[in-house]
Amino acid sequence: MTLQRQVLFWVAALAIFIALVWLLNDVLLPFVAGMALAYLLDPLANRIESLGVNRVVATVVIILGLLVVLVILALLLVPVIANQASAMVDNLPQYSAHVQALVTEYIKPWFNKLSKSGVPDLDVSAVLKNASGAALVFLASLWSGGRALVSVVSLCVVTPVVAFYLLIDWRRMVTSIDQLLPRDHAETVRGLLREMDRAIAGFMRGQTSICLILAVFYMAGFALAGLNFGFLIGLSAGIATFIPYVGSFIGLVVATLVAILQFWPEWTLIVIVLCIGVVGQVLEGYVLSPYLVGTSVGLHPVWLMFALFACGYLFGFVGLIVAIPLSAAIAVLVRFALRQYRESPMYLGTGSH
In terms of residue numbers, what domain contains 300? Predict the structure, then answer.
């Protein structure tokens, strides 16, 4: 009965937590972002504190340094991104006409040879309009999780403040949580939490480094190849790499399509852009991921993709932030449950003892 009550208690606590996240997701984004930022910066604060610096002073230095870096990056990147995004929108009619010409001149005759009946004309402008409409709906669904009270201003103001206070009190919060653990199972829970911490920290810090490295690689490579909007496409592809494999693949497809529209029929430059994307894929899969993330994280790429898409769909931007910690926690609990099952009489059988 005691075990049943414990299970019911934790199931009820989990249900209440999910319900609260669902009800409050309109205002959670800057707070969740601040918590994630504090979690990522805590090891740096600990290292500075170990040098004899007061924890508050270390936190102030870290937050101010981070804000300075973000402001510099914004001043450098935002004008370029805005100009390239505006130019891309202005060039959509030209690209639409180019695609229509390619379809009419090359693709349609090839399909007509394979088919007895002719292929009807393709209204590329309508296809692009529908695709852009679908993209806007998807972005709106992500933003809907915080459209009531959350804005760029709240993220810029509230998130650093939340991160500052959490970073100061991080060790105290960890101690308070530890004191709330059931005494009979405290060591087991601590072990699970340490395993979750290794998985979350290993993936987030490693994957963030991969995103930065690939963003620089793609931006430099596409710019040297002369690809239109290469800076914007490269930066987007690098950031999208946070979704393992899928993000960089989407960047490869977009860059190749833009290269075809820009350079056709000059195949050499198209192949160069394609090779840059393929080299980025190889770097991610065979060099950066094994070295920076490693196999000890224990998070399968398919599980991460599902978690990111599912949490993003259900909770918007808040879901994207909590997807990785949640998936890591669930993976650790599932592995623990499987270990317990393999050691139980249900698996071993009653005649094994």
Answer: 183-348
